[in-house]
Amino acid sequence: MTHVRTVEIIPLGIVMAAMMMRFTGDIHADDKSVRERTDQLVKPYLDNDIVVGMTIGVVHDGKQEVFGYGRMSRDDQRVPDGDMIYEFGSATKVLTGILLADAVVRGVVKLDQPAGELLPAGVKMPASGNRAITLQDLSTHVSGLPRIPDNMKFGDPSNPYADYLEKDLYAFLNNHQLARAPGTSSEYSNLGQGLLGHLLSLQAKSTYEDLVRNQIALPLKMSSTAISIDKESQSRLAPGHLGDGQPAINWDMQVLAGAGGVRSTVNDLLLFVAANLAPPKDKLGEAIELAWTIHQKPLKKGDAPLGLGWQLAPDGTHWHNGQTGGYHSMVLINRNTKTSVILMTNTSTGEVDQLATDILKMISGVKVAPRKFEKPIVVPAETLQKLVGNYELAPGAMFTVETRDDKLMIGLTGQPSLQVFARSETVWFYKVVDATITFNLDKKGKCDSLVLFQNGIKQTAKRKK
User: Fold this and answer.
1) CA-closest candidate to residue 256, choices 185, 332, 172
2) What is the CATH number of the domain that holds 253?
3) Are 322 and 432 part of one and the same domain?
4) Same domain, 247 and 163
5) Are residues 410 and 334 in the same domain?
C-alpha cells in the first residue's frame, strides 16, 4: 500500500517555491501601516472561513510586530496572540537540521557519517549498493527512504503517528529494501527526518525534546517551545480544527518527533528568526550558519536547493511549512531584505502558505493584491446522495464519500474525512490543499468513478458496488 501514500490530502511539507515569484497587486507600501496592509491580505481568509484563528509575526525595518486574527474556537472567542501555542508540524525539521549542525560543530558527528553507525546493535540501516545513507542524506531528503514507513498501523487516522514506536521503526529498518541508491533522487521524507532526530537523541543519550530544549530553546530563551505542554500552559494551546472548521485532536509523535512533533508560539519563533537573521557568536550561531548553508543542490528540474532542514526559494528566502491534523505553520526568512514572516493557525489548511508569502513580499516593498477565493455553488441534497459511496483507488486504499449536515465529505484510508466544495455538480475542490475531485457519470446518470487531480497527476478510483 505504500505506493498510495503519495496521494496525501493532508500535506506535511512542500509548498511550491514559485509562490515567491508571484508579483501582482495594488496595495501601496507607502500609504498604509504594515498592520493595515496585513489586515487587507488576511481579510479574504477570514471572510471565506479558511481559518478559525491565526497569529502572524513579521520582521521588517528593524522591528517586530505580532498580529492576531479570528478566534480560538467556536466556543472560545479569544483572539489568538503571540503567546498562543500551536503545533509546528513539519517546520520542526528546521530545528532537527540545526540539531544536526550543532552536533557537527561540537565534533560528535559528521555530515557524511553513515547514519547506521548511530543505531543500536541488532538494527541495520537499509542500503543500496556500496553507498550508505549519511546523516546529511536524512536531512536533505535524498536518503532513498520513503515518505512514511510502510508498517505504520494507523490505529487512529486522526492521530496517525501516535502508535508508531521505536520497536516499529527498528522493524522497518531491518526489513526495508531501498528502491534507489542514496543521493540519487530527492523524495520528501518524514521518515528520514524523524529517524535523524531519533539518531541524534541516541548519540546524545537524551530525548529529542530535551535536545531541542537544551541546544536551541533555552539558549534563545524560547520558553514555550516543546513537545509536551505542562498544565500551566494548557490554556494557551489553541484548539486545532480540520479544514472545514470542525474540531481536531492534537497529534502525538513518538519516535518520529523530529519530523513534526514540536509545539511553539509566534513570540518564541520571533526569537528564533532573530538568531537566524544574525546568528550569535557562539557554537549555536555556528550551527545556525551551517544549517543555513546549501548542502543539497537540485538533482532534477523542479527540485529546490536545501540546507539542513531549510528549503530555499529562488529569491534566497529560507522557509519551511508544516501541517498536522488541526494546525498549519509557515516560517519565511530573507537575510537580503532583513525580513521574515511567521504564520501559525489552528486550522489544517495549506491555503495560508500563499498568505505568508504575500505578506513577506508586501513588507519587502512589493505591491500585493488581496487574494480572491473561488465561491462554491450550492448543490441539491438529492444530487449529493448520488455521489455517496466507496471508491477504490488501489487495494487497501478507499475513498469514502458521504454527506454530513448537507456537506460532501471525502476521506481516504488512513486519513480523516475533509469537506469538498462544488465548482459544478460533478467537479469539487478542497480548501485545505490544491486538489480537485471529479465524479464521472455513466449514460444513465449514475456515478461510476471519481478522479483525484493533485500535483499535476490524475488518479481514478472505481466505485465499489
Assistant:
1) 172
2) 3.40.710.10
3) no
4) yes
5) no
C-alpha cell at 22: 508571484
The answer to whether residue 370 sits within a structural domain is: no
* C-alpha span between 172 and 40 (Å, rounded): 48
* Single-letter code of the amino acid located at 251: W
Q: Cβ(142)–Cβ(186) under 8 Å? A: yes
Could you read off the pLDDT of 244-299 as tens digits, one per residue?
888 999 999 999 999 999 999 999 999 999 999 999 999 999 999 999 999 999 99
Burial zone of 375 (CB within 10 Å; 0-12 exposed, 13-18 middle, 19+ buried): exposed
Confirm if 13 and 321 have CB atoms less than 8 A apart.
yes
- Please give the angle made by the CA atoms of 96, 19 and 245, to the nearest 5 degrees: 75
Any domain includes 241: yes
Q: Are residues 231 and 306 in the same domain?
A: yes
Instruction: State residue 415's pLDDT score.
Output: 76
Domain that holds residue 18: 2-363
Q: Are residues 44 and 148 in the same domain?
A: yes
For the chain, the first-to-last Cα distance in angstroms comes to 22
Give residue-wise pLDDT tens across range 71-87.
Answer: 999 899 999 999 999 99
Q: Which residues of 74-103 are buried (b: 16+ CB within 10 A; e: fewer)?
A: eeeeeebebbbbbbbbbbbbbbbbbbbbbb
CB count within 10 Å of CB 34 equals 17
Residues in the chain: 465
